[in-house]
Amino acid sequence: MHKRGKKKKIPVHFYHLYRKDRKGLSEVVTNLLIILLVLVAVGVVWVVIRNILAGGAGNIELGQFTFDLRIQSAYVSGTDIVVGVKRNPGGGELIGMKFLFTNSTEILVVRRNVALEELEERIFTFNSTEISGISAGDEVSIAPIYSSSGTEKAGNPTDTAIISGNLPPGEGSGPVCGNFICEVEESVSCPADCSDAGGFCSDGNVGPGEQCDDGGTVPGDGCSATCIIETPSSCNLNGVIDSGEFCDDPELGGETCQTQGFDGGPLLCNNCGFDTSQCTTTAGFCGDGAIDAGEQCDGSSNLGGQSCITLGFVGGQLDCSSSCQYDTSQCTNPAPPSCDGAWQGNSEDFGVECDGTPLPNGCSALCVCEPGFTANGAGGCALNPPLNTGIINSTWINIFFNSNNLPKSSAVNGYIGNYANFSNSAETGCFLITFADYLDGNNISYVRLDYSLGYPDINFGEGYSVWEAVNCGQ
């Protein structure tokens, strides 16, 4: 048993000394605490680095940081979720993608074994069986799957978007034209999806955008109703096809590349799901990268050796449409003769809106006012007023912002392709708007800014303006 001792009295001279120097002592204690916290933080960082190094340099993959996959659109279409993806330049050998769907309670991961080429865009459709519980207002992220030294690797997510409850302009509630999946209803109405002689998903022949086609529309057999390889619900890897598995290497359950809609090749089993990456087809189609009969081109990387100049234009960028025909919308026509650096009023050729030396602000080299400007009748171009102005309510990772001043309707989608700048802000740049949407259930409109040249330095409470003009009127 411990005896309770008497409280010791602090000597009066020490007490006065303490009172006199307590401010100094407080500063010393504060500095000591700061030093201690810094040492702890350094220790934590070193533990993380040591664990990485202990795992071997092979765990650090440069490839995962160089892929640039962007979500162009994400929306609900009937009972499906449709996600548009573009691959920007960079990265190595892309062999697939993982889509991560997130709601308030879970994250669902869906794999697509589609190897997008650089600058290629594609639309992916996910049915309710694959992503049960995901709806408008939830999030979708995308991550690359790539090959490194012959080994499959999965990178970190490169982009995230909020799933919209509104269809993009021109889309109905039925099949999505432009997703490279030819569905029954599209055999005539959407040649871009059905360029392989009128085929469609479930016709037993693999077409554009299809990973398989077993001739049926019933999910749960390894090939979904939208002709996408299904992910098994379980996998024991014991060489026996158990419940929830479609295969278990080497057992394929009698399935072959031919039963999956291909002409030949070996069907593989990957984590108890079919892998058709080695299956082959002999018939060509729009989207296979080869120029077949009736096609002028096949993808922006195969233009058949043609360019805007070889087609009779003076410049510009030739492209290939989704129906494998030349798209000359970005090619440049010759300038009229009177576009000569001097404004001549009524003597100007038809179509000349502006001229001068140097060219007035907003006047192109073809003597036509650029988007966002209007000819003033005196050889110049007047800047159009902003499409929208307002105050930022909130931002997210500095590329999304919402505002009560944005249209609370699908009209906000019309801002895609326009530009935004900011006032009362440290940010002085002009940024392309790559996405815009209205969330009906939350009554929120938001936009996403391009950050290819750096993240915008924006914050809530700052002003913004939306412009048609590329330079935001600056």
Terminal residue distance: 83 Å
**pLDDT < 50 runs, ≥5 residues:** 1-21, 44-65
The main sheet orders its strands as 17-23-20-21-22-19-18
CA gyration radius, whole angstroms: 30 Å
Indicate the percent of residues in helices.
under 10%
Average pLDDT score = 79
How much of the sequence lies in strands comes to 15-25%
Secondary structure tally, helices:
2
Shape: globular
| Structural class estimated from helices and strands | mainly beta
Characterize the main sheet: 7 strands, antiparallel
* Number of extended strands: 23
User: Could you state the order of secondary-structure elements as H and E?
Assistant: HHEEEEEEEEEEEEEEEEEEEEEEE
In brief, what are we looking at here?
With 474 residues, this protein is mainly beta. It has helices at 12-54, 63-66, and strands spanning 69-77, 80-87, 93-102, 107-112, 121-126, 139-148, 151-154, 159-162, 268-270, 273-275, 315-316, 319-320, 326-327, 331-332, 373-375, 381-383, 388-391, 394-396, 400-402, 419-423, 431-439, 444-449, 463-467. Among the domains are: 65-162, Immunoglobulins (Immunoglobulin-like, Sandwich), CATH 2.60.40.10; 177-285, no CATH class; 388-467.
Question: What do you see in this structure?
Answer:
- It is built from 2 helices and 23 strands.
- By secondary structure, the protein is mainly beta.
- Among the domains are: 65-162, Immunoglobulin-like (Sandwich); 177-285, no CATH class; 388-467.
